[in-house]
Amino acid sequence: MTRLFAILFPGSPAVNALLATLYISGPPNFLLALCPTNIDPASLSVMVAFAVGGLLGDTLFHLLPEIFLGEDEPQNARFVLVEPNRNLLLGLAILIGFMTFVAMDKGLRIATGGAGHDHSHGHAQAPAQEDEMKALTTGVDIGGAAKSRKKGKDTKKDVVQAPQEKSKEINPSVKLGGYLNLIADFTHNITDGLAMSASFYASPTIGATTTVAVFFHEIPHEVGDFALLVQSGFSKRAAMGSQFITAIGAFLGTLIGIAIQEFGGGSTDADAPMPRNGGIWGTSLTWGDMLLPFTAGTFLYVGTVAVIPELLETGSNKMVELRKTLVQFTAVALGAGIMLYISWHE
């Protein structure tokens, strides 16, 4: 393992951090090319459920423990000083991340004319159905109108094209959730890049083990994100391209971390004590420490508000829906279980 790490990371801490970012960003995205071009909608809903489990598992089993307690360092014992005000600020950052995405989602809905207000029904109504509903509420006779439409030439076009348009209809709430997830994934990749740079400046061994941990986190995470994007109406090529764009965030975070270490007087001693009262509002927190809880808040929003409503949609066939629900819950448990296993053994 030591020889392998020496081959993979042969340079300075800055070069090794950039190489590690390339390793964790490239292969997981290329694995998406193995996914089929035409994905069955039933299997896609299972992948979305897997993404929910992965997002919530990553937040609850990895991000939150790291936010409040820090990373585990097996080579030494570390005394953790409990700062109530520090924990309050971290919780505030999580809430800010959550509410920032609430505001972004609300703004997108207003910009699109209120699309996505109802998560379960009302989005796929054809214009003729809307006219019929309007006629029922106003008392206008729709029978004659319907007959006159059938006599017209344009009526056949409406009848033929309506099913095609309906089949392409994407739930606006899910579409917005896909875009929000891209933004959340971008900020998460920034934190990964910051972790890469900090770990390699601490020691080569810590950097290598951090790379392995982040790499195995990224594989299920990228698959889940890919499923969310396809569910949001992205083509396979567009979804893969979007994932590569979010990978820029990892390189951005790595470059920021390198700049801090090289030019900002960053300490290379992993055991250097943090100043207790020299940070934000008299705590040991710096502004860089607030990015990880902000990311946790965005993941909570995307995994719950933006995606779970899609899993709550049900049809009229009870037995089919029960089987579908069982499969979806199994996928959620699988996604969360993978994150739990990785976090448990890293």
Automatic annotation (TrEMBL):
GO molecular function, one term: zinc ion transmembrane transporter activity
Subcellular location: Membrane
Regions crossing the membrane: 88-104, 244-264, 291-313, 325-344
InterPro entries: ZIP (IPR003689)
Residue ranges, annotated region (Disordered): 145-167
Record keywords: Membrane, Transmembrane, Transmembrane helix
GO biological process, one term: intracellular zinc ion homeostasis
Entry GO CC: membrane
Superkingdom of this protein's organism: Eukaryota
Bilayer disposition of the protein: Multi-pass membrane protein
Compositional bias (Basic and acidic residues): 155-167
The protein's name: Zinc/iron permease
Organism: Moelleriella libera RCEF 2490
Lineage of the organism: Eukaryota, Fungi, Dikarya, Ascomycota, Pezizomycotina
